[in-house]
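The authors assume throughout that readers already know how a fold can be written as discrete tokens. The format is easy to grasp once an entry is in front of the reader. For illustration, here is how one protein appears when written out as sequence plus structure tokens:
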Amino acid sequence: MGFETDNLPLFENSSDAIIVLQDGIIRNVNSNAVSVLRYEAHELVNHAYGDFVHPDDVALVDARYIKRMNHEPVPRVYPFRLITKAGEIVWFEIHAIEIVWEGQPASLTFFNNITERVKAQEALLDSEKVNRGIINAIPDTIIRILKSGNISGYKGPDGAPADGKVPYAGRHLSEFLPAEKYEEAMGAIRGALASHTVQLFEFKWAEVKGVEWYEVRLIALAGEEVLGILRNITERKNRERVLKERLHLLETRVKQSHAMSTIIGHSKPMQDVFDNILKASRTSAHVIVYGESGTGKELVSKAIHDLSDRAKGNFVPVNCAAIPEKLMESEFFGYKKGAFSGADQDKKGLLELADGGTLFMDELGEIDLNMQAKLLRAIEGGGFLPVGGRETVYPDIRIVAATNKNPEVLVQQGLMREDFFYRISIIPITLPPLRDRLEDLPFLIHHFLEKLGMGDNLHVIPSHVTNRLQAHTWPGNIRELQNVVHRYVTMNRLDLPQSKEAPNHETPQRQDVPPTPLNKVLEEAEKAHILRTLEATRWQKARTAEILGIHRKTLFRKLKSYGID
């Protein structure tokens, strides 16, 4: 191609910056080139082209110029930097074509200022570098997830990139999440894409090293893709669990203190009772409380209810001995309006009132066999029909029964169904009579005096009165003691029946002393005490040994020596 003086008007009027290069020397420039480089024309023409190229780009430009002159393949368009007269560095993209200048080979070079584009690219690269540094510095797992649930990219907590060697990239979320959490995760992904807000959820992942908890934050990206940031929160969950357990323990202790505040007892037998109350409260199994009349069976039953998961339900007490036999069914099962004369409205029975709670059945042995069969069906899940009703009611109840009779004897006598007895008496608790826990007597007296507003005057009880209280056998147990204390406070006199076990210490009587050796008297007393304890525990020898504070082998040896089977 020729380029002579007749083409100068086109050369001068071009909107591009153009120079003519020949053997590395600038032979001509147009006005736009002068404007771009900010030199005068004479400062450019006949000067080496390399004088204006950025030092770092001179070798690149020279090498490509030589290759072009030798007709070797080189990119016809490439970027490089020029330095203006003011020292400013400007990025150009050049396009060169071969021409003939004054009969000699030369090149016509077009300059396109790309400084702004280069700056934008550099800013983007810097931004990407910063972002990449930030992402690699984050100690969390980061994944890119498509709307479909496929994982398109992954970075582990150590900065591992998303490539073919990473086991998560290219797989689906359903491979890692439990079914219920997978649905939640997909919903969160859709929510993030729709609202462009951060979505948060947690999930538990069973790994080789154990169960791990993760918190996931989902952030919408361009297109139908989200960025998921997975943070291991196992340590936090463990701390929360420990704190929750501590709070639960504190609540339990407060609850126990409140529930047992009305049960007074510091003796070893009563401490055993407290332990059994706590054990029974942790289950929903039926309980039977044994004890003589007045030992506090209802208080113990109420404490079991208050400490159990059924505490929010009703505690319904009933004295079975006080219900006439003909009314037993209507009292327990209720009735419908019009079921019989006088039934002018529906009435819920005791079982339905105790639904979700506890039914306390005192004097269990007074229920007849027919009613026992119906109750057995109801508590075993068969439900019951209210009198006059047509729809079966299925109550969710726990029964705590109480009796001062021996149910096993009642079963042998045919007065109690064997299946009914075994269904009710899953957890037995035996309350000791007051005569076997006399060390609790001062605390009980103080408790009753406080109830009567006399707690501060406990010291005024004379010693001879205290001695009589200690010597009494208390056949009526706690109830009798409460009445005696109340009478004493009200009437200022102590009314106790005279007996061999409780002599009147105010007027002692002379008695003939039998000619019996002391060791024999002690043996008889020990034998009697062992027999009373065996009866209280229903002949549970291991339990008897524990109450007596002796080893079982010692108890068996004593039983054999006293001829007790």
